[in-house]
């Protein structure tokens, strides 16, 4: 037992002498302490949240439909012309194969049918027929994360507001118009805003009517006023930005 204690003491002295000679490492750890401390204090929900489209773990069909709907705004928001699909060459020399392709086109996937419906229903201003997308589901499903990731992926600046916080319809209307008509001035590259309204099911009926009026007033003004209406639409009366609403109870 005495020999074991002596050997353990010698080993302890050797370890202490080696750690005392390595002085630069503790100073380096002291320099990185603030960054490590901020990383440790960060919530896991924020630390491991998806930041890119490929990192999303939600339903792929929902992700693609929302991204497809948001990309339909590119003509109005970014001035990009819609890509025209090239017509497939005729296969008159092979009639059986052509008949097989026609039969195959009858059985289209759910995503293809949804994309055709979204592309077919565009208004006179080249905007989607439905100006608001509604994401519904239980809490913790990733609805808000999906909206932010899709907005950034499509080139927008995500502006989030909570419909339950602003109970006044006047404040609700002011915040919607400010988000949909003003540009982002943060950073060197100005990006158009994409409004994300969270907890829309907690908003009063008056606020919902304000949102509907902002969406529907464009048709009456656009049809009634031909000359003066164009100038008003340029000033921001026409809704030219997408709106994504989020709710728990549809």
From TrEMBL:
Q: Is-annotated flag, keyword Cell cycle?
A: yes
Biological process terms from the Gene Ontology for this record are: DNA replication
Q: Name one GO molecular function term.
A: ATP hydrolysis activity
Keywords annotated in UniProt: ATP-binding, Cell cycle, DNA replication, DNA-binding, Nucleotide-binding, Nucleus
Q: What is its main location?
A: nucleus
Q: Which InterPro entries match?
A: AAA+_ATPase, ATPase_AAA_core, CTF18-RFC_complex, P-loop_NTPase
Q: What name does UniProt use for this protein?
A: CTF18 protein
| Designated gene of the protein | Chtf18_1
């Amino acid at each position: 037992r005495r020999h074991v204690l002596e050997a353990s003491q010698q080993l302890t002295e050797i370890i202490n002498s080696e750690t005392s000679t390595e002085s630069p490492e503790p100073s380096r750890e002291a320099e990185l302490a603030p960054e490590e401390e901020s990383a440790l204090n960060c919530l896991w929900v924020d630390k491991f949240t998806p930041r890119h489209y490929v990192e999303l773990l939600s339903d792929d069909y929902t992700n693609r439909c929302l991204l497809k709907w948001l990309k339909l705004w590119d003509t109005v928001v970014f001035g990009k012309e819609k890509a025209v699909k090239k017509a497939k060459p005729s296969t008159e020399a092979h009639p059986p194969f052509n008949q097989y392709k026609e039969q195959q086109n009858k059985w289209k996937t759910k995503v293809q049918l949804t994309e055709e419906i979204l592309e077919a229903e565009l208004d006179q201003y080249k905007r989607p027929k439905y100006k608001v997308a509604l994401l519904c589901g239980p809490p913790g499903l990733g609805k808000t994360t999906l909206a932010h990731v899709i907005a950034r992926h499509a080139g927008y600046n995500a502006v989030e507001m909570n419909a339950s916080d602003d109970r006044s319809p006047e404040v609700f209307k002011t915040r919607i118009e400010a988000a949909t008509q003003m540009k982002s001035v943060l950073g060197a590259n100005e990006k158009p805003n994409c409004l994300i309204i969270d907890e829309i099911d907690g908003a009063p009926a008056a606020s919902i009517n304000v949102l509907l009026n902002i969406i529907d007033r464009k048709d009456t003004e656009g049809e009634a006023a031909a000359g003066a209406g164009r100038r008003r639409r340029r000033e921001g009366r026409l809704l030219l930005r997408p709106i994504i609403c989020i709710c728990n109870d549809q």
